[in-house]
Design brief:
With 415 residues, the protein is an alpha/beta fold. It folds into 2 domains: 230 residues, Glycogen Phosphorylase B (Rossmann fold, 3-Layer(aba) Sandwich), CATH 3.40.50.2000; 151 residues, Glycogen Phosphorylase B (Rossmann fold). It is built from 15 helices and 15 strands. The strands form 3 sheets. The chain has a 7-stranded parallel sheet, sandwiched between helices. Helix 4 links the parallel strand 6 and strand 7. Helix 3 packs parallel to helix 4 and helix 8 packs across helix 13.
Amino acid sequence: MHHPTETVRVLYSFPHKLGAARICYTAWQQVNGLAAAGADVLACPGAMARPVAQGVTVLPTLARGKFRIPYKLIGSMRAFALHDAIVARRLERLADQIDIVHVWPLGAVRTLKTAARLGIPAVLERPNANTRFAIEVVQRECERLGISLPPDHEYAYNAERLRQEEEEYALATRLLCPSDFVARTFMDRGYPENKLARHTYGFDEKAFHPSMEPRTPTRPFTMLFAGVCAVRKGVHYALEAWLHSDAHRDGVFLIAGDFLPAYAQKLAPLLSHLSVRVLGHRNDLPELMRNSDVLVLPSLEEGSALVTSEARGSGCVLLVSDSAGAVCKHMENALVHAAGDTETLAAQITMLYRDRQLLNALRDSSLRTAGDLTWTAAGAKLLRVYRETIASHSRRYPQLPVHYPISEARNTVMV
């Protein structure tokens, strides 16, 4: 049985390019945070986009040296399946050196089956809500708006992908939920609470920090949206609420992100308002956040958007829906509205526009606890989840063999 003070040895399987954008950045930060927390990490990504923290062992599955198997050439699903097969084979050889397996969606079925057969607990990352729930929510909203998603869009219905994801849910020991909202979408579908584990994502405090300069009195009230401008993110609700608030008269609404063409076309009349500035994809988010008063995210479905923690670290007050997965408390350090409730969101924008004292109080309160949301803190919390999962698994299956220290077998040949 694994002793609670022993180093946790994790095989971290990620079928994409570790350290690239979006979820690839999230996974990269998780690996670094786990290493900082004291975990012994064997990372098995498809490929590497940037180096990881010292002490992490990295064994890519779809790359060797400068040679990479091109995902686009063989298709992402084939690439993920090949990754899964390689990791499962490695796990077979390393059974006595691994305490827990951490996998990501769509590249994990064989690895999860192998872990179960070997008696090793395995956790599955859930970067978004229950997939069937998410697809249904986005589809309903697209139909309401009269927009069609491209067939290859990540939220377009795909029976085979959905079947595979739901098989992964069933095989995993626990599902890692980065927000209460994600956990709720699984419980609503009948998943038991003890199947779900709450962890968090984080922000890089070196990049995202508040401005040391006092706010310029002449600067207009500024609201920011940052992220992919997708239907599920509720940009249309943000625009409607902004234009129904008092703030649009002399304030500025900045939208940093790329639009699906059909969505941008649908929203063209709202986007053309003089107070709205569409910036496209930006690489200066920390600066944009420091110069904005609020970050708006009226999502219909989300895992736990990184921008919400990054905004808090930058001194930007959150205006979010209850489906955004943000770590915050209504009227304590943020304002929260029910997803789709444009009227309430408009009233909240007006309230912060008119009452700068409330805006500053929320900002100060948010900054006081922002340090709890760093990637370092997230790594420590994830390691605690690993320990709880290992302990629970050991109690349920006490006949499992004791693992040998990983240092005794570091030079094991791995495929």
